[in-house]
From TrEMBL:
SUPFAM superfamilies: Periplasmic binding protein-like II, Voltage-gated potassium channels. Residues 24-354 form the Solute-binding protein family 3/N-terminal domain. Residues 1-18 form the signal peptide. Keywords: Membrane, Signal, Transmembrane, Transmembrane helix. It comes from the Bacteria. The chain crosses the membrane at residues 129-155, 199-220. InterPro entries: K_chnl_dom (IPR013099), Solute-binding_3/MltF_N (IPR001638). This is Amino acid ABC transporter substrate-binding protein, PAAT family. Pfam families: Ion_trans_2, SBP_bac_3. The keyword Magnesium does not apply.
């Protein structure tokens, strides 16, 4: 009886493993140019070429099934498809739910943003002066000029009437002297001669020197922060902004783990880039070769650009259900043999991927 049970279990195992080989494989994919490019009913791209080569060498029959990216991942998990030829990033979480072939390509994430016009840059620069800190400092500066101008005129108007004239003209003389002294210009056309006038000038010079230095530093800091805000050079600059990426992608996990606060997800790259172009998000973050290809090939996205930022190194591979271990090993062996050939380098160059 025990022997019979063992025979039955062995038969079922062999049937299950051979079922994948005997039937047509269900190959799921979603557009991800230049790895998977849809031209009407035709499908091409680096991953398509690689899979067709593998399938031909291993005599595998298959059918191609177009799917949304998120649905494709779910089908891999449940066994709805036998293989995904998309450039899937190998992650620890995905490895718990599916098998991966050996990686055949390494990439990284980058950031796409909308170009800022010259007018917007000028407006942004000028807005650096129109903040509470700068305006408060300017009001304090005018008050100091007025206060010390009045004091200087009061102390000098009787003993120094030629320089600090009586009446309204004298008040103007005091304002002029105070402004020139405070800014350390020192024309020398007006100078106090009385004891209290000179004491006022000393306080104004030393106190004004400290105040002007602080005000200058405040303006410079405000302009620098404003410039960094509008010309970000790293993904940390976008943590408090609305950013987009692909649903259930490795990049979405990366952004969540790095505390991005406002993440918008989209089913595919063209949809995300359109939203970026329309101003619905401030940046779209995803795999560099895919973003670069999409922007170069779509003339309506000419206002978008990629920042010179590289992060989140990713290794691409084909994905299979957990039940397809034997098939994965066969495909992996053939992939390793193919990517070691010169033909692989030629195909990479054909799709503009050799530089990554």
């Amino acid at each position: 009886m025990r022997i019979l049970l063992l025979v039955i279990v062995l038969f079922i195992s062999i049937s299950a493993s051979s079922q994948v080989d005997d039937e047509k494989l269900r190959i799921g994919y979603t557009a991800a140019a230049p790895f998977i490019i849809e031209n009407g009913e035709d499908v091409e791209g680096l991953n398509v070429w690689l899979w067709k080569r593998v399938a031909s060498d291993l005599n595998i029959e298959y059918e191609m099934i177009p799917m949304e990216f998120s649905a494709m991942l779910d089908s891999l998990h449940t066994g709805g498809i036998d293989l995904s030829i998309n450039p899937l990033t190998i992650t620890s979480q995905r490895s718990k739910e599916m098998e991966f072939t050996h990686s055949f390509y390494a990439s990284n994430a980058t950031i796409a943003i909308a170009e800022v016009s010259s007018f917007d840059r000028l407006k942004s620069y000028l807005s650096g002066f129109l903040n509470v800190g700068f305006l408060s400092g300017l009001l304090i500066l005018l008050f100091i000029i007025f206060l010390f101008g009045v004091l200087g005129w009061l102390f000098e108007r009787k003993k120094n009437p030629d320089v600090f004239r009586p009446g309204k003209s004298g008040l103007w003389d005091g304002m002029w002297w105070s402004a020139v002294t405070l800014t350390t210009v020192g024309y020398g056309d007006k100078a106090p001669v009385t004891k209290f006038g000179k004491i006022t000038a000393l306080v104004l010079m030393f106190g004004g020197l400290l105040f002007i230095s602080g005000l200058t530093a405040s303006i410079a800091s405000s302009l620098t922060v404003n410039q960094l805000t509008n010309n970000p050079d790293g993904f940390n600059e976008f943590k408090g902004r609305a950013v987009g990426t692909i649903t259930n992608s490795g990049t979405e996990n990366f952004l969540s783990e790095h505390f991005f606060k406002d993440i918008h997800t989209y089913p595919n790259v063209p949809t995300g880039l359109k939203n970026l172009d329309q101003g619905n998000i401030k940046a779209f973050i995803y795999d560099e070769p895919i973003l670069k290809y999409a922007i170069q090939r779509d003339s309506t996205l000419h206002k978008l650009e990629l920042l010179p930022v590289k992060f989140d190194i990713q290794f691409y591979a084909f994905g299979l259900p957990k039940t397809h271990v034997e098939l994965e090993q066969r495909i992996t062996q053939r992939i390793l043999e193919i990517i070691e050939t010169e033909e692989w380098d030629i195909v990479l160059n054909e799709y503009g991927l050799a530089e990554f």
